[in-house]
Specification:
149 residues; mainly alpha; TerB-like; 8 helices; Tellurium resistance terB-like protein subgroup 2; DjlA_N
Length: 149
């Protein structure tokens, strides 16, 4: 029975095209960034302005594509039940360096309004745990984000 379940899961996973996998990865990353943005329950103008440019620069896409991705991620993020849904996708497809880059973007977004909310900090740290990043990496990315503001 376990072998049949494993075979089903493998055949089902193979049905996803590389383009769909890339899109799912982008949606997962943007959804995590949205989690940070919404964590303090106030949408700051700097956060709202920073997100599309951060995404277009990080993913090397146009501003229009970044805004479309944000709109799609808002729907996905709104229906999510936990951060694990997003981090599982990232763990499956990303290297440590890519995870660190995402964490750095999360810290930059959190500090964009000049202050770090406790909820933003908690979401970033929970995400880092789910991405299997070390505490030293979390602190290093936070320090880089603070220096670059």
């Amino acid at each position: 029975m376990i072998a049949k379940l494993k075979q089903f899961l493998q055949s089902h996973a193979q049905a996803v095209t590389p383009e769909e996998q890339a899109q799912q990865l982008k949606l997962a990353a943007v959804s995590l960034l949205l989690e940070v943005m919404y964590a303090d329950e106030t949408l700051d103008e700097q956060e709202v302005a920073m997100l599309p440019s951060m995404i277009s620069h990080s993913l090397n896409i146009s501003s229009a594509e970044a805004n479309a991705l944000i709109d799609e991620a808002k729907l996905v993020q709104g229906n999510a039940t936990s951060l694990f849904e997003f981090t599982a996708e990232i763990n499956a497809q990303c290297s440590i360096e890519q995870k660190q880059k995402l964490l750095l973007c999360m810290w930059k977004l959190a500090y964009s309004d000049g202050k770090l909310c406790r909820n933003e900090d908690q979401i970033i740290r929970r995400t880092a745990d789910l991405l299997y990043l070390k505490h030293s990496e979390v602190i290093q990315m936070r320090n880089i984000a603070m220096e670059q503001r």
